[in-house]
From TrEMBL:
UniProt GO MF annotations: phosphatase activity
The protein's name in its UniProt record: Tyrosine-protein phosphatase domain-containing protein
PROSITE patterns documented for this protein: TYR_PHOSPHATASE_DUAL
Annotated compartments: Cytoplasm
Entry-linked Gene3D superfamilies: Protein tyrosine phosphatase superfamily
Domain of life: Eukaryota
Presence of the UniProt keyword Hydrolase in the record: yes
């Protein structure tokens, strides 16, 4: 039986979101024909999951380990982190692409919210989607980050 990762969702055609996949999710992920996985958490993925992606020729980009750091101004997410992640998401050569983090919320949801800003969604719609995915894990500071994110930081393809 196929089991998607928790917090799985379709962002748009060829772009998906979820929490960090585990072994029981791998058959489901095979069906997505992923080219790229963008992992946003500082924690390390399970070794078996990393090996699976290698075997499937999926490019794993672990921005969480490479770039996750608190901003010195105490913002919840570093602008450079979101900028780098968005530029990767916007590169359609990397699609189908899965965006994920440990919870599926704390890094993934703000990133998708900032993507929606670039797509000119209304703030109300962006925050509705954020709250739907975040549930009880929603954070006001993330909503504020999405609202005030400077979309001009991102280099569009």
């Amino acid at each position: 039986m196929l089991k998607p990762p928790n917090a799985f969702g379709i962002v748009q055609q060829g772009l998906y979101r979820s929490n960090a996949p585990v072994d029981e999710n791998l058959p489901f992920l095979t069906g997505l024909n992923l080219k790229t996985v963008l992992y946003l958490s500082p924690e390390v993925l399970l070794r078996s999951v990393v090996e699976f992606f290698k075997e499937q020729n999926v490019d794993l980009h672990n921005l969480g380990v490479q770039a996750w750091r608190p901003d010195p101004q105490w913002t919840p997410i570093c602008d450079d982190f979101i900028k780098d992640a968005l530029e990767m998401v916007l590169d359609h050569r990397k699609h189908p692409l899965l965006i994920c983090c440990t919870s599926g919320v704390f890094q993934t949801a703000p990133l998708v919210g900032c993507l929606r800003r670039l797509q000119n969604w209304s703030l109300t719609s962006i925050l509705d989607e954020y709250r739907a995915f975040a549930g009880l894990k929603a954070r006001l500071v993330h909503e504020q980050y999405i609202e005030f994110f400077d979309v001009d930081l991102v280099s569009l393809p």
